[in-house]
Structures are given as C-alpha cells and as structure tokens.
Amino acid sequence: MDVDFTQEQTMFRDIVRDFCEREITREYVRECDREHRPPRELYDKLGAQGWLGINIPTGYGGSGGGAVEVAILLEELGRAFLDLSFWVFRAVTWGGLTLGRDAAESVKEEFLPQIADGSKTVCFALSEPQAGSDAASIVLSAVEDGDDYVLNGQKVFTSGFKASDLVVVATRTSSEGRKHHGITNFLVDTDSPGISYTGIETLGHWPLGTAQVFFDDVRVPKDRMLGELHEGWADLGVYLRYERLCLSAARTGAAKAALADSIEYSHQREQFDRPIAKFQAVAHRLADMQVLTEISEMLVYRYASRLDRDIATVRDAAILKLYACDAYKQVADMGLQVLGGYGYTMEYDLQRHYRESRLGVIGAGTSDIQRNIIAKTMGL
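Structure (tokenized):
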C-alpha cells in the first residue's frame, strides 16, 4: 500500500530496506535462531548507521526522528529479522523515549549517546510471578537508604536481559493508598551486585530470549530514578503505548515476510499439474493474508502519525496492538497451511513465524486486555 511519507521518510525506508537485503541473510537469521544467539554483529552495524538513536535528540548523539521514522525502521527490520527489530525496539523505547523523557540530565548525558551508538543495550522488567496482566500489583520493593534505593524481589519474562547492559525496572516504593500509586521506575545496571537471572525456555524468540531476574539487596543511586517518586504508573502508560507502536511495526514487517514466502512457495509448488497458487482455496487464503498485512500497516502509520502530532489516544494504541498482533498470528498460521507439510519442517521459515507470532496476543498486554481498554473507552 502507499503510505503518505515525506520524501525524506521514503528515502530512509529505501536505505533501510537496501541495508536489510544486503546485510541480513536468511541463513544468518536461521543460525541465530538455532544457536539462541543475539545478532550482535548486526546490532553493531545498526549503531554505526546511527539508527539505534533514531528517536534520541541530536544533542545526545541521536538523529531526533519521530514515531513515523521509528515505525519505518522497525517494520523494515522486522521483515528481515524480527528479533533484531525487537532488540532495536528496546533501544528506542526504553532508551530513546524513556530515558529521554524521564531521566536526570546527568543520566541522559551518560547513557543516551551509548545507546545511540550501540555500546550500551537496554531492556525492561515489569512482570512478576503474581503480576502479569494486573501489572499494578508488582511488589518488588525499592527502599531508600542514604544516597541509594535498595531493590529486593523478582521479575519474570524480562526479555532481552541476557543481551542487556541496562534494565528499566518498575518497583514498589509505597504500599499506601491504591495500588497504582507507589510505583517508581529506576535504571539499573544488569551487572549490579545482587542481580542474578535464569533463562526461561520458550516456544520462540530464541536469539534474545527471556528471563526470570532476581534482585537481592541491589543498590541503585537515587539519580537513576526515572520520573517522580511514587508516580511511575502514569509514566509506564506512556512507555507501554509507545511500545505498542514499536512491536506492531516490527510484527507487521514480519507478517509481510511470511506472506512473501507463502506467495513464492505457491508459485513454485505444483500439484495436479499446476502451481498451487492457481487453486482458489490457496489464492483466497493468500488474499486474506494480504488484507491482514495492509490493514496492519495502515494502523501502524496512523498511530505513528498521531503520536507525532500528539493526538494519539489510549484506544488508538489498543486497537493497533490488538489488530497487528492477531494479524501476524493469522498470517503465519495461514502461510504454514499454504506450505502444508513443508511448512511444518525446519527447512522453511514459516515455522519460525508460526512460533513467534503466538507471543503477540499474549505479551506486552494480552489481546483480552486490549479489548478491555477499547471497551472502557466506549463507555462499556
């Protein structure tokens, strides 16, 4: 579909697409998947291009781009290598947005240039064993002690932790009043004394993985607090709505890749003396996949444009996340069906799309939670 990009945005998309076609081979992606290995070489190249600082102000070593530029970058990377796009999403969300918005000036000056050039990586820790969809029920404590806060507790599903130097941690600093009050966010070094982690085996997203992280008397300087004491819940809402743009853009790119592979296979695979693309059942399935990806793309750039104009709503974010994640899941499932038995083998990439698309309707706010948000904005 045609998206109303500026000339500069179109050029940027073409440059990123050319980079992906030149630098990201299918075999490299498969190797990282098989070996559960982060694509460090590619991440460093993205840093050298200046793209990890796409939304970081120029004064801190970034390029000062907006949400549309972020979406372009993540969609193109997602089409080539979804886990690489997710790694970049963490840099732009928990680095560029979160630190750029709420960190102390000294923290911005220290870390934003390093995030922009790729020498520091960052992830996010919110969920706990008893606090998933009910994220405000977190109990990991941060207690003031002199010039520090001391953190104790555990987080779960902290994705990308094994490849991160920094982690944004949502903590409980007060238990008074309603549970949404008393949440405070901190920037923590992942190698801080008292931090340990255990990897969690998952169905997909193996290169970066996810982890359970334990905090045992972890000291964090007060100047690493993000935003105001006890008022972190509202800040988290801002971060997570931006996250929904990033994840949706990346998954839209991945859905396009799954569709392209399915179309190519349907032209090559012959049964009953003709390509299977000539059978109406297959053609209709591919047409449905096309519709899903195009609507997903439209919603991504509608939301990105609204973010840049500061008119995006909570409902916009929920609709985007709900649709884009389900669209990728449906496209991957239908694509695997197009490939039939071969889709179920590790020889083709549809199995990876099938595995990884399943997380979208669960992680970062389940589809049911998105429907709750949408219904609430409708007065239901």
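The mean pLDDT is 96. The chain has three domains: 7-120, 124-230, 233-377.
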